[in-house]
Amino acid sequence: MARVSDLGGTPGHGPVPVPDPAEPVFAQPWESRAFALTAFTMGRIAGRNLEAFRETLDRLTPAEYHDSGYYGRWLHAAEAMLVASAILAPGAVDARARRLAGGRVEEPLGPAAPAKPDYAPTAPGSLRTVEAAPAFAVGDRVRAREGARSPGYVHGRVGTVDRIQPAHVLPDTHAVFAGENPQHVYTVRFPAHELWGAGADDAAAVTVELFESYLERP
Amino acid sequence: MTDPAPSPALRAEALEQLLTERGLVRADVIDGFVAKYESDVGPLNGARVVARAWVDPGYRARLLADATSAIKEVAWGGGANGEHIVAVENTPERHHVVVCTLCSCYPWPVLGLPPSWYKDPAYRARVVREPRTVLAEMGLDLPPEVAIEVHDSSAEVRWLVLPERPAGTEDLTEEELAALVTRDAMVGVAKVEAP
After folding, report:
1. Residue A172 region, left (φ>0) first, then alpha (ψ -120 to 50), else beta?
2. Same domain, yes or no, for A11 and A106?
3. pTM, to two decimals
4. 3-state secondary structure of B99
5. Is B105 a known active-site residue?
6. pLDDT per residue over A9-55, tens digit each?
7. Interface-testing mutation among B101, B105, B151, B192, with chain A (most A C-beta atoms within 10 A)
8. Which of A109, A194, B12, B31 could disulfide-link to A30, CB 3.0 to 4.6 Å?
């Protein structure tokens, strides 16, 4: 199923905005609050699990994902994670927001006790050490498979290992609090014609970071 | 009849109230966190790295070999979205540009928070497919013979583009050079212009 966040190569988009060097960090004050509240929320769930946040973003509806931009989707994801951990009741944010707007809305009772996932990362951040040697070497040809952080536009496409990066926790299991399962990560280089077919820019290529289990020999 | 959904500004305020009431956040801590990303963590850090690489060939070599360590020689490094940074060098023959098609991953320690165009669905969707056209729309025309390498930051590797040093800047100091380096050049959607 297509993921709402998986935009690479998708059709139907207009021109890219022209950069404004004077753009403020936050376009509106609420964006800065959403940014900080989300950052603190991640620490309240079960360790600073960035992958759980990304996975939650992926479960938003297209309207939740797109309608209020980048920090709007952060707000929706923060709320969803707080509800999933029984820190806030479903609908609590909506009810409070309507009251702030002058609405006469009953607020839901808060959950009796948080129900956070029983999970703690083994170390801060995402980088880990993996004892086993990398399965692929620089220069190897590899075919990309699906995975939590494998963009759809590379699935089934063949590229070349360009760099071996430090091992990372595996998003597929870490995001759902099922284990870190660190793996080697490879920067794989795909020529444009392999991704987009004949007519693609001959002098262009795309590199993507892919976990070892997202790769197979062609 | 239901009222329209509350605005994001009201939802943010509601969320802050609810978390404050539960003792989970404090307004002054939030203020401090926001201020850090509004003023301390920004593209000035990356600009200092680039200027050092332009004037010091040994530093340039260290930056291209191990950017995560080299960055810490001149600026604050590490932390969120900066665990492992790779620097790539633009040349007259090869141009690098960075995107995150799955979200908006961006090297926070050296560039700060991403600008709006970087988070725009059109940029995320199109720059991997038609980079030369997208760069032209953004004001950077690259001749067809210049190779373009697009880096899609799909994991925790963060990419920093080392732009070309503009001609005519031989007499400038490192500090003067840093003042020329823009955020957009360090993502690869612009070149650095001589003053």
Report:
1. alpha
2. yes
3. 0.96
4. strand
5. yes
6. 999 999 999 999 889 999 999 999 999 999 988 777 766 788 999 99
7. B101
8. B12
